[in-house]
What does this fold into?
Amino acid sequence: MKTLTACMFTALTFMIIPFARGQDYSKKFGDVSMDEMTLISCPGDLKADAMVLYDIGKSSFVRNDNGFYIVFEDHARIKIFRKPGFKSATIEIPLYQYDKRGEELNEIKAVTYNLVDGKIKATTIDLNTIYEEKITENHSVKKFTLPDLKEGSVIEYKYKVLSPFLFSLPGWDFQREIPTLLSDYTVFMIPFYEYTYVLQGASGFDEFENYKDEGIIKTFGPVNYYEMVTHFVMKEVPAFKEEPFTTTKEDYLIKIDFQLSKETDVDGTWIDVINTWDKLGKDLMKDVNFGKYMSNCQSLAKGLFDIPKLSSMDENARFYTIVKETKSMVRWDDKNRIYVNKTAKNFVAEKTGNSAAVNLFLAGALNAGGIESYPVLLSTRSNGKVKVDYPFLHYFDYVAVIAKVNEKWILTDATEIFCPDGSIPPHCINGKGLIVFKDKTGWVDLLPRTTGQKDMEFTMEPAPGRDSIPVTCNIMYTGYEAYFIKKNLRNKQDELFKYYQSDQLDPEGKIETFNYEDPNKNYVVHFKCKIPAETLDGKIIISPVPNDFLPGRLFPEAVRKLPVNLNYYRVRTFTSRILIPEGYKVSKLPEDYSADDDYMKITYSSKQEGNMIVISAMYSFKKVIYQPQEYINLRLHFIDLNSIFNQKVVMEKS
Amino acid sequence: MVFPLKNVLQLRHSGFFVTFFLVFVSGYLFGESGDAYIRKYTTEIKYNFKHLSCKTSLEIQINNREGENLAEFNIPYTKKNRITQLKASITDINGGAIRELGKKEVKDMSLFRDNIFYSDAFCKVFELKYNVFPYIIELEYVQEFEEFYMITDWDPVYHSGFKTQNAILDLQIPQDYKVNIYANHIKAAKPKTTDGKTVYHWEASYDTIRSDEVFSSLHLMTGPCVIISPVDFTYGIKGNMINWTAFGNYMYDLMRDGNALPKEEADHVLKLISNSISNIDKARVLYHYLQDETRYISVNIDIGGLQPYPADYVARNKFGDCKALVNYMHSMLKLAGIKSVYCLVQSGSNPHGIIKEIPSQQFDHAILMIPIEKDTVWLECTSNVLPFGYLGSFTQGREVLAIEKDRSCFVRTPAQSLADVGASCSYRFRTEKAGNCRAEIDFLLQGKAFERLATMKSDLNREEITEYLKHSLPFKSFELQTWSVDRPGRDDVSIRLKATVTLPDQPRTFGESLVYDFPALSLANFEKPSERKLPVHFSFPVSIHDTLVYFIPQGYTATSSALRKIENKFGSWQIQSTMDDTSVTIVRNWTLYPGDISISDYPSFYAFISTVKDTERKSKLIFKLKNR
It folds into this structure.
């Protein structure tokens, strides 16, 4: 039997940085060499504040009276170069508990080594300084920090975690936020459990072995077996650096994850735990906390919605009415889940629930209203991407809905009241979603259905001798921009004031807003303010795009290693109308500009219409995702954009 | 997880943990009373010489989704102060039952707080939300206290962002049980005694939502409040709070046995100071040793919120919280024969001040005082970078409680003066063409800026400091080219930041003129006088001396401008320029004096700040093309 199925998922290939010699440090606990103690920097990354000398892990199966459990062992040695690297000396070990069973941590050893008067001094951790924190109902963390820590210290720790959860063979992170000289993980498999693994962030290993350990024959019931050993090694792994405009670190870190795929009994019979998406989907539809809940909601919805009235509507109107009514009828508890945590009856009574409860109800309601609808499993952006080739349920954390309306499939959602009906919230735009039909599954691209647009109109009335220019501001937010500003500021005067004050526009009087309640309409904000007037030698100088509405330094870094992921298409437009004061004429208008390529569209134009100067400008991104190699061009566009939008209008006495 | 402070006396960040909890409502969004409000907020405290119990009852009306902050609950507790009899329900506006809180809905989690590595505190987390507005949440729970040193620190504010219509505090204690009571801005309670029990009753409301204001003293003391502490109590050990001296004795007793150092450590300490003659030299050597060998890690277990870990804990682990590190330093000094005094302090740039009328635990930090040779040396023991004898903006200029057996008293820490905080900032601007200006900056920083940068230099890596500088230098738009931070000696009270930047939007071109904007002064956005409700408080002064040298580009000419000066009792601002053949030099001075600005003085202060801002904005340097 093949005990471990190798699957590769490639992403970024990482650059090998030439580290010095190093994988040959002793791996015996406590056997620290003078070489390690006297290292002054990471040879391949001189800026590193600390470096993993090695991190060696092992997972194996051990028997007890209740059957098998997994023993995960970790042994790491880390060199601390500078004080900012001290954070690497705080170790947190996550533990999982479920249904009165839990993972156990034991055999912790942790030692700090320092060079004192030319000799290596070891300080062992006081076990009383190891603490446990409960993070959630099912997750806790044991944490400790190494004693006697100094710049130049070497720290070493090891521990074991005993886990009864055979479905969850520990994965392994080869990469950390500090460079790693050697990362080594070995899995000892038994013939009763088969796992699939997925490698992320690299195209392969520096060393890989898969062999039968013929040392000791083992017995379980009538079965004699050898363990199968799989050994993964990576060397000289660079530090992981987070960058803005990315989804989650978990999408990019070099690591392997495992998923139980098959269980075999001692009599040779076996169960495919997960083998295809279709099987997974069928199981879900039979699940009381998924498919059956949805069916129950469909029945209950008939009593909650005015079905005869809905039946009289065309399909499009019916769809939007049901989505709208569902949003006002129920509320999301801000929890992303793929299973519901209550019965349909309770949900209808309490009217609150997690994303699965809300959207499976929506799917049920749409079906009750005669709109063919199905649940869509997806992974939100902070949860990472789904690997579509590997049918593992743990990738997902959210349920949305897809509905067939006038022969067109529409992704929709009822959790976010400010998200336009018939679209999914921005945090759901992340790769592909799995449509769970009754007896099969399919994939849908989770693409933004709407853009995020912000249209700004300024009417400026400068007057000679005045310190400031009265400005009337009309700002219109469309699509996801409307969603975000409504969600974040909640239409509250104080929040709106603070928001615009941070843009150096100091609103005067009331800020008027329109369409806050309606997610399908643009959010419009109207207020008056004053901006500083600038005069020079009797000339009036005006920035048509007020300074703090400039695109700014969105991309300050010269280079990037990770793609820029903007989430959705973004558009900005500016229209400034500047009244020419009596007795003045235009002495300089900004130059027109136009650019349109694969990266961005930028336009800027100015003209005089009677006693009015009209400046129209816009920029839009052509892509949602820009690859690292495209970044330099994107950044150059932004540098140009800033200088173009920063042009001035100059008026002088006529 | 963020917990808004229900009351500043109850939870603090740096290791002191007072065990009297109230509900914390998660999130910190300020709502308006129209969104939700607390209809009734009742606290009933009973003590019977054995147990202290506190029953909290709440009736909250949620009017819309914006008010649902009040439907999310985190109730902190510890194993010694467990929550019992927790029940909650939702009813509709007419009192019709909607649902009750299920046991499984209540999750027990660790209570996480900033700067605490570990605490044994937990919280009960749940929410009660419904989709038909308005609805009413009724919540009730009892907290039993095995040991305590505070009975209550009460005010009618359940959540600072939402009004409380009716708040009630009831206290029932045995007739012969003595307590200290401090009540402010509230109708005095008339104690009633029957059957050997004395009962007190207070009522108040919270009608006007308070919001944070720039540089205001914490304003929680401006509303109704009741603080009650026991005269005799047991918390770890027996204590008494009849007066501050008694409270000092309790703290002293808590620390009394914690000064022993392991022999190896004691030998090392004595060796370290063997070549030092004066006490001040010895103290300096030991302070540097403390800074080099230990780090700040805060662990709060059991009564650890008050009691420092003993010196041998720090000697072994080389870490501890403020109390443990102060105690460790105190122990080393004691071994060296140098007297030092453990002091309790309210930390932060803008502390609300100690209510001396009621002896109680009102502190969140510890520092050390060494009375040496007719002078006093103050030590901040949690910092690895501050100079010997330097407290900094975190604890300067305030009263602290010095803990000594039978002699505890309030002592004032030295205040930072203008000379202590002065920053000298030099800029040299060179321009080849418009939009291509290069600036060399050389800042010599003291005071809070020094403290911040010295800490960053120690604790952050170069990339992190670069990121900070990219957002901190006083230019609207710039590219940071190079930088260095230099501090020649560890006991220097200043730090030098040098950098070169390019300014893509400087100078601006208007016709034949080049226009330069000056680097921005950092001035807070103060509220308009019509909106300001609280006095302004500056704990320490501001003093900035800028020298800006602009080299005149070839073919251009400049003129110097006259001195402009704005000065009054709040501070001063002035700018002056001089020039020679190659450059124009602008000298700008900005001073703000420390102290309080009353609300009646606020309009003048606001006018002063506005004038400075306006004059700053209009101040520009213009180079004109020479006549050909």
